[in-house]
């Protein structure tokens, strides 16, 4: 038994080496390039795309519109605008009375009185030239704004005894009796007299439109304040 074992010990390494060589050769053959590697098609797994049909697209758009509408409707309403600031109404009542006093008074003109004043207050302010001139006036009458008080009897003719016309109390018809004075100029004289509280002098008549120096000289001798 000792001799065969010694012989196998000498043969075994050779057999093992031969077998290993054949295995290695086979592996080399299997691993060797074939020349067709570039032609091989490798199929990688594809990621599935999400595809929506036309119906799904329409439904999705409708849902989005509905959501936007709901959000809009649920928003709180804007606060109402502040109420307008009330504007104080303009006063319709006149706080004071402005009255014109003309005629036979020392200081004809415009006078201002408190509401409730009477004709007697206006006469006292203007100062009648002769107490007899106020006999035709109702001194207890309340004053009216923008009114005019003519001191002198209304029944008396405006022309004085010598035929002259009283500039501060004559009517339009009476002023038309003057030489060269027509209805339009006579009305302008009365309008100026009312707006200025009477004439302070005869010369002031030249401030009326239509009364120039020549016309004034022609009628001055027929006038009296």
UniProtKB/TrEMBL annotation:
Gene3D superfamilies: AF1531-like domain. The keyword Membrane applies. The chain crosses the membrane at residues 56-74. Coiled coil: none annotated. One of its GO terms (cellular component) is type II protein secretion system complex. Residues 173-192, 203-222 form the Helix-hairpin-helix DNA-binding motif class domain. One of its GO terms (biological process) is DNA repair. The keyword Oxidoreductase does not apply. InterPro entries: Competence_ComEA_HhH (IPR004509), Endo/Exo/Phosphatase_dom_1 (IPR051675), Hlx-hairpin-Hlx_DNA-bd_motif (IPR003583), RuvA_2-like (IPR010994), Soluble_ligand-bd (IPR019554). GO terms for molecular function: DNA binding. Keywords: DNA-binding, Membrane, Transmembrane, Transmembrane helix. PANTHER family: ENDONUCLEASE/EXONUCLEASE/PHOSPHATASE FAMILY DOMAIN-CONTAINING PROTEIN 1, ENDONUCLEASE_EXONUCLEASE_PHOSPHATASE FAMILY DOMAIN-CONTAINING PROTEIN 1. This is ComEA family DNA-binding protein.
């Amino acid at each position: 038994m000792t001799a065969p074992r010694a012989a196998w010990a000498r043969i075994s390494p050779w057999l093992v080496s031969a077998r290993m060589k054949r295995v290695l050769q086979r592996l080399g053959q299997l691993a060797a390039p074939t020349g067709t590697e570039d032609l091989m098609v490798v199929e990688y797994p594809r990621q599935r795309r999400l595809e929506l049909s036309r119906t799904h697209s329409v439904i999705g758009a409708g849902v989005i519109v509905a959501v936007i509408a709901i959000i809009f409707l649920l928003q709180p309403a804007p606060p109402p605008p502040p109420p307008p600031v009330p504007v104080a109404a303009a006063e319709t009542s006149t706080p004071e009375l402005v009255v014109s006093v003309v005629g036979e008074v020392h200081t004809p003109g415009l006078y201002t009185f408190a509401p409730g004043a009477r004709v007697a207050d206006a006469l006292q302010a203007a100062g009648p030239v002769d107490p007899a001139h106020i006999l035709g006036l109702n001194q207890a009458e309340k004053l009216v704004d923008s009114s005019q008080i003519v001191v002198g009897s209304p029944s008396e003719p405006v022309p004085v005894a010598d035929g002259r016309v009283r500039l501060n109390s004559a009517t339009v018809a009476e002023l038309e009796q003057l030489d060269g004075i027509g209805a339009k100029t006579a009305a302008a004289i009365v309008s100026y007299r009312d707006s200025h509280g009477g004439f302070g002098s005869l010369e002031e008549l030249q401030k009326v439109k239509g009364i120039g120096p020549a016309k004034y000289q022609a009628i001055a001798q027929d006038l009296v304040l």
